[in-house]
Amino acid sequence: MNATAKVLRYDMRDLLRSRWLVGYALFFAALTDALIRFGGSSEKALLSLVSVTLFVVPLVALVFGTVYFYNAREFTELLLAQPVNRRQLFAGLYLGLALSLSLGFLLGVAVPVMFEGLDDAAARVPFFMLLAAGTALTAIFSAIAFVIAIRFEDRLKGLGIAIAAWLGAAIVYDGLVLIAVLVFSDYPLERPMLVATFINPLDLARVLLLLQFDASALLGYTGAVFKSFFTGISGTLVSLAALAAWVAAPIILGLRGFQRKDF
Amino acid sequence: MIEARGLSKRFGTLQVLEQLDLTVAAGRVTAILGPNGAGKTTFIKMILGLTRPSGGTLRFDGEAINGDCRYRARIGYMPQIARFPENLTGRELIAMVRDLRPPAGACDEELIGAFALEPQLDKPLRTLSGGTRQKINAVLAFLFRPDLLIFDEPTAGLDPVASSVLKDKILAARRDGRTCIITSHVLSELEELADDVVFLLDGHARFAGSVPELKARTGQPTIERAVAALMRPTLGEAA
Fold first, then answer.
1. In chain B, what percentage of residues exceed pLDDT 70?
2. N or C: which end of chain A has fewer CB within 10 A?
3. Are strands B75-78 and B148-152 parallel, antiparallel or unpaired?
4. Which domain range does residue B164 map to?
5. Assembly ipTM
6. Domain around A64
């Protein structure tokens, strides 16, 4: 067993006992349970769950991730003083965080669904796509949290930037896209809009999820363009591939920062 | 054991170490002294590979420290601040470090008994006091019987009993022929530990030599008074 697996093992043991993580799982469990019981059809329940997931998962990954890295600072130094190389240690710390958060999300959403079931077999694909997108968003935004925490020594500054990153991806970005659409309404905007979808992983995840439902009204401008461009299954495949690329990018950036950092 | 040649470190515009030449002799206890910001911790972190030099070379037992992590199997480190994963127990923490660093022989767990840590080892680390966590740090530093022991302000959070246990342990390590590097603000406690003294000021070694040499050069009876004399600029120039 290499150092990554060893760090991961103890790291997850620590994180899974954290009250915050247990609370995170319980939050999704309570929400999913309530939506299935009182939300009418499975599809409606899942759509509401999609909206909450797109907001909450990146926020928790960013805030919890930066706080976790800053709190583990002294311990990370202690581990770095052992005969362990930085790449393996980074992998262990990152996977410990991303897997623990993903597990909290997956259990929180899946356990109520397993007990109560989906009333419509057609809701299965959107449901599994929701689990996949939630996991991908956790992986992406935990890595971004690490990139921020590695780059900024000052905890308060790092946390502020993490929250700003979330505001940017979740709220400001859509506003900017809308303004751009208004300002440049005389020009053909399909291709720039398509690019705009790929630039923001949160937008990408939203389009991927809403493509699974018959709810075009919620797709928004970028999503509508996306749907007309990638018809049928190709839209799902392209957005999944792009999300995977989005997972890799901040991990590589974070690893590079971690290897060069002066502790 | 440690040899620095022209060692420099710059953080942005701040020059922490400047062209430092320094040798830490094997089998002796070397105290690294200096005011806050003199570069003591930076020097220690460079030995551990936590911080990289901006210039110059640093050798551990003849081998340049340049990113390979294996040499650290011969070093035990007790950091200044003891912060661990909150929800692990002391026993799990020790098991984790032991997993990461498979011991060549039997581990040295003497300090667990000497500090009477046994009853604390199954509690979550967040519930332990700072002093107790610092004792666990000391256990980890000695655990693998390393050739080089590095202590950053080791007795800062310890009560007098624990601090004398630790000092006895350091002296025993020296008797075994192991090398120790200590930084401390409590100069009186170094009196009974240190063989050699390095006094860092503004990134340079203002003095490096044995304790008797230091006292002879400054004409002072104790390390504390000798260091105070070194900090007076005129005498410092002469030295």
1. 97
2. N
3. parallel
4. 2-238
5. 0.87
6. 3-260
